[in-house]
Amino acid sequence: MKTISLESRILVYENRDEVPSDIQMLLAEAEQAATRAYARYSHFQVGAAILMNNGQVVTGSNQENAVYPCGLCAERNAAFAASARFPEVPFSRIAITAINPVETLKVPVSPCGSCRQVLFEYEQKFGQPIEVILSGQEGPIYHLRSVADLLPYTFSADFLP
Ligand code: THU
Fold first, then answer.
1. Interval between CA 127 and ligand 1 midpoint (Å)
2. What is the Rg, in whole angstroms, of the alpha carbon atoms belonging to the chain?
């Protein structure tokens, strides 16, 4: 018997002024996107901004519905829009942030499992890691080298016949 350890590495920027300016710009796009959320039920507004290899930025925000499961997260709205608009262009980076109107979010938002799975699909499709930048309204910013770091031992097309 043996144990396998899976490691994820996160680069932490403790101060916002340490964050490289190109990442700050993408985060600013995600912050803007969060203000466009339709979060009538949770009131938790999430924004995502994807930088494509061609330099285009595609954003998304969470869109909710009275039939709760019909709503969709910001990350998937951004990823599906990006792929629909530029089907052959890899994703270079995604920045994700959120606004909690009740209590300022002081830790980086963490994407849900379904969004991790969806982002991983595009990482695998293009064979190019997608950097992930996570932010709250205040506090540290996390920078991961790839979606695989958020979703180790992932189910993927490799398992399928
Ligand atoms: N949400 C996102 O958009 N992204 C995340 O990473 C976490 C959760 C949304 C879904 C729902 O509209 C609201 O936040 C509360 O779960």
1. 27
2. 16
